[in-house]
Amino acid sequence: MNKIEHIGIAVKNLDEANQLYTKLFGKPSYKTEFVESEGVKTSFFKVGNNKIEFLEAITEESPIVKFIEKKGEGIHHIAFEVTDINAEIKRLKAEGFQVLSETPKKGADNKLVVFLHPKNTNGVLIELCQEII
Amino acid sequence: MNKIEHIGIAVKNLDEANQLYTKLFGKPSYKTEFVESEGVKTSFFKVGNNKIEFLEAITEESPIVKFIEKKGEGIHHIAFEVTDINAEIKRLKAEGFQVLSETPKKGADNKLVVFLHPKNTNGVLIELCQEII
């Protein structure tokens, strides 16, 4: 785990969240991106060395729909940057953590990503991500 | 907002969370601290330039008890470091945000802290914190 790469926040309306957080951070989002595999559109803000990612569902099957139904809008996941995602998956499985996919997937922001099951991590949805070079 | 100072995670049992996240991060918590004013005991891990804070309630009145009852264990708040917390409170109130206390309080880790009401921030509990010098 090198650093917190970003924090993901589930919202109902990305445009409204962008307006609000532009006021909070005092600067606008620097990027919007669609991630078809997760059924979301996303926007990114930079704060110091970290990013904040906002996620709005664009399909009914998106995990963001279920999350908001169950818990309401709010913090959805923490993403940690790793150097070798496959080695980390192997290490964490040996430690008893459960991954949501056996191999990493292409996520937002040019990353390979994998999620750990929150039932083994005190309810925290943890993403591991590695930059695609 | 200079940086993400820490992410706070609400847990039922701090010792168990410490053991689990020691495996996840590959290193142990570097500090445990009681914050009587919030009715919590806390532990801190460092990841890159950020901290992860785990919070367990030590009184029935602790906000962490209500949070876990309502949402379950999980990510509780994001704390942003600011240079002048009183100036930020004034600026954010003028922008329409609502603070949970009119003046900053003494929080964990030698900080002055104030929280923004999550109803105005897409369900995200946001802490502003300034190091006490």
Write a concise synopsis of the structure shown.
The structure is a homodimer of 133-residue chains. By secondary structure, chain A is α+β, with helices and mostly antiparallel strands. Helix content of chain A is 23%, strand content 39%.
Explain how this protein is built:
- With 133 residues, the first copy, chain A, is of the alpha+beta class.
- Chain A has helices at 14-25, 63-71, 85-94, and strands at residues 3-10, 31-35, 40-47, 50-57, 74-81, 105-107, 111-116, 126-131.
- Chain A is built from three helices and eight strands.
- An eight-stranded mixed sheet of chain A has the order 2-3-4-1-5-8-7-6.
- Chain A is globular and about 45 Å long.
- The relative contact order of chain A is 0.20.
- The mean pLDDT of chain A is 95.
- The A-B interface holds A 1-4, 7, 9, 11, 17, 20, 23-26, 47-50, 54, 71-75, 78, 80-81, 92, 95-97, 118, 120-124, 126 and B 1-4, 7, 9, 11-12, 17, 20, 23-26, 47-50, 54, 71-75, 78, 80-81, 92, 95-97, 118, 120-124, 126.
